[in-house]
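hey all, quick one before standup. I had two proteins in the batch that finished overnight and I want to keep them in one place so we stop losing track of which output belongs to which input. First protein below, input sequence then structure tokens straight from the run.
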Amino acid sequence: MKRLICSLILGLLFGPCVMAAQVGLVKIDGAIGPATANYLARALEVAADQNDACLIIQMDTPGGLLQSTKEIVENFYSASVPTVVYVAPSGGGAGSAGVFITLAADVAAMAPDTSIGAAHPVTLGGFSEDSISTNDIMGQKLENYASAFIETIANKRHRNVEWAKSSVVASKATTAEDALKLKVIDLIATNVPDLLKQLDGRMVNGKVLQTVGAHVVFIPMVMSEHLFKWFWHPEVMTMLLLVAIYGIIAEMSHPGAIFPGVAGVLALVLFLYMSSTLPLNIAGLALILLAVALFVIDIFAPTHGVLTGGGIIAFFLGTIMLFNRAPAGYHLPMTWVISSTLVTAAFFIFFIGKGIRAQFLPKRAGAETMIGQRVSVQSRIDPAGGKVFIEGEIWNAVSEAAIERGQTVEVTGRQGLTLKVKPI
């Protein structure tokens, strides 16, 4: 009995000391954007609250926005929990913005057969590597800024500064194996359990990591972050732009519908808000607006579809150009370009065109429709008055000349409840 009691006491005293550590894990797959920055900021807070030994960021990205990358790097610097960026799975890589994030982590790791590099300036203020010439002043400023930024990161984390700068200036890239030799990263791990074994005993910010056999807790995105990430795509932004165009013009062609106008304004506000972060090509946007103008003008002008054809071409080119300044991962697929062009052309030709033309058709109901009709006289009509039968009703009628009952007259006008007629 005494032995049992002693065992229980020892278990209570030393049990927590032998419990396995806990490690947080997040996965980034795709372009780096505002949603990614928000997700990682929250994950760092959750990992700190859980008292995790470290937070592993498993990442496979082609690149992303520089502003979002800056936020992630700043969060890494201020984090109370050690950060480990693990470029995985095999075949994946850390391109462009991913290079900055990998180098900024406390521990940089890669899986075999992965790559890292090509960190030439991503996007800042509407510029990107696809749209900037090195001879351009703004492009040179951006390149210099990105080079200095990655140099400070590499210096802080004691990694290969020269290679880091070359990845920006010369778009250098390398494999995981070479990155380890060049001291760009700290280790290569085949999977997360292997990574935990290699992290064990490593000193990070004055803290010795104990990760062998650690319990890995995945920190998923919450619903708001999923929605935020879904919205921040060129496909969604294109949909918002189309809804804005369709809704506002539909409201103008069908006054009083209300819903199209409200939906169009809301979509336009969302589009403008998102475009403040994800840069647009102004020339592409101008071509899209020109296409809309050509579609509308062709409804009134007898051009036999020439302007509509020009509008389709302008819309197609504008949609292609709209996101060509965005970094990797934020380009609009060609399937979306073609489908949105066809839908827009059909929308203006079959829906808006008929709606606008309908407003200029002659009226088919009401008293105005009686003008020009030929009717029979019910009682003698003279300047003093008489009666005619029209559209199932008997109306007062006047005429400059006398007209006998039974004759046929033509309605020439209306004044109040009295019709003006003339003999045929």
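OK second protein, same deal, sequence then tokens:
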Amino acid sequence: MLNLVGLGLWDEKDVSIKGLEIAKNADMVYIELYTSKWHGNIKELEKIIGKEIKILNRGNLEEKSSEFLEEVNDKKVVLFVPGDPLIATTHSSLLTDAKKRGIKTEIVHNASIYSAIAETGLHIYRFGVTITIPFLEKTGNQLPLSIYERIGVKKKRDLHTLLLLDVVSEKNKYMTPNEGIQILLKSEENFGKGIFTEDTEIVVFGRAGSERPLILYGKVRDLMNKDFGDPPFVIILPARLHFSESEYLEFYRVK
């Protein structure tokens, strides 16, 4: 049986009691940390469940997923996943492959950035499709026009835009809000449709679920050079604000 267990937003203290109990009774326990930044301590989690935890990389769960599922087969296996197990599409694909092999599966859900963004005061039901800002070395040193235009479409439709910042887990490299802002400004310079300028108002939301979350709201020009501290972060481009959203965000406006 394959159990996908959500780690939650921050560290090992966020894992649910149900998830811990399943891990304690598992034959093998794995963890993947390439889909998101996790601030937990694997050794501490091992102490809690009383078992060794093996780290899996992207290749183990994508290119070599069949080998991983061969190990699962007739055993009870837990895979710990940052946030909620089904936010990353790679895990949905893994579940599909497991079901094709007749392997039983169970999901233990947990909090993710998709629910946590409500901490900014923005209404979740007003968010459209999520967009990831990639590191430019992956895209020929330019944000693809398709991504820029998708942001513009959502702006026209009056939807909030959640922008995820790229991660290169093998290099422990996490895009900063400053880098994301500069990529968007460069795209504006290249494509020139007035979608993202220094006068655009944005929200920077970081360290969700921790004891020191960060929410900053203001114009790009007032945020672009700030030191935001430790990751992870997202950037939000708000649509026209409902009065209750506006009132809430004012507590976080950069002066």
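Flagging for whoever picks this up: The longest helix spans residues 177-191. The chain has two domains: 2-111, 114-252.
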